[in-house]
Amino acid sequence: MSSLLESRMEITMNLRCCLLLMASASLGGCWEAPSFCSGYDCPVYTVVNTYGSFEERRYEASQWITTDIASTRASDVQAGFWKLYYYMQGKNKDEKETVTTRPVVVSVNEASENGGKQVSISFFISTGIVVPEPNDETIRKKDLPAATVYVRVFGGIATEEDAIENVQKLKEDLQVAGKPFDGTRFEAAGYDAPWILVNRHNEVWVYAA
C-alpha cells in the first residue's frame, strides 16, 4: 500500500513538473512584433520560409475593423482611412478610443459573395480588445481565421499602380516557386502614417490556396 501511494505521488509530481515546464516554455516564446511595426501592435505571425523575393507567413486568427470603399484610387482609400481613423479615436457609440495599431490593409476581392469586385480598407484591432460599437453602419468588425500568406515588401509612398505591379510580380514568383495561391484576392498593407515620407514599409499579400 505504501509503495502504491509513493508511486502515485511520484507520478503526480512528474505531471506537475511537466506542466510547469510547458508554462515556462510558453511564456518564453512570446511573439515580438517586427521593427517595421514601429512599436505598435501588429497581427501575430510566424515566418514559415523566406525566399528570394517573398516571404511565407502563417498568421494567427485576428480581428479587424473595416469599411467598404468604391475603388483602390487614392481618394477612395483616403476617405476610408479617415473614417476608420476617427472611429478609432472615439467616434463610435461607446465614445471609446482604441489602441493605435499597424498595418492598414486595403483588400481587393474579385469574387465576393455578391458576385462582383469588392474593395475594403481595414485597421487591425489588438488581441483581447473589445471592439466598440460603430455609430456608422458602413463600419463593421471582421474576424479573420488563421491563414498562410505570401508577402512581398516594397518601399516608397505606395500608389495604386505600385500595389498592382508588386502583386503581379509576387504571383509570377509564386508560380515559378510552385506555390499554389488564391488568385481572386490580394491585400496591400501599409505600416506608416500618411505623414511619414521616408523609409516606408509596404507589403502586398496573396493567400495560399
The CATH superfamily of the largest domain bears the name Regulatory factor, effector binding domain
Average pLDDT, rounded to a whole number, is 88
Question: Tell me, what is the CATH class of the largest domain?
Answer: Alpha Beta
Largest sheet: 9 strands, antiparallel
Q: Give the uncertain stretches in residue-range form.
A: 1-28
Number of helices: 3
* CATH fold description of the largest domain: Multidrug-efflux Transporter 1 Regulator Bmrr, Chain A
Strand tally is 9
Proportion of residues in helical segments: 25-40%
| Oligomeric grouping of the chains | single chain
**Any guess at the CATH architecture of the largest domain?**
Alpha-Beta Barrel
* Lateral strand order in the biggest sheet: 1-2-7-9-8-4-5-3-6
Strand content: 25-35%
Tell me, what's the shape? globular
**N- to C-terminal separation?**
59 Å
Structural class: alpha+beta
Query: H/E element string?
Result: HEEEHEEEEHEE
Q: Taking Cα atoms only, what radius of gyration do you get, to the nearest Å? A: 22 Å
Number of individual domains? 2
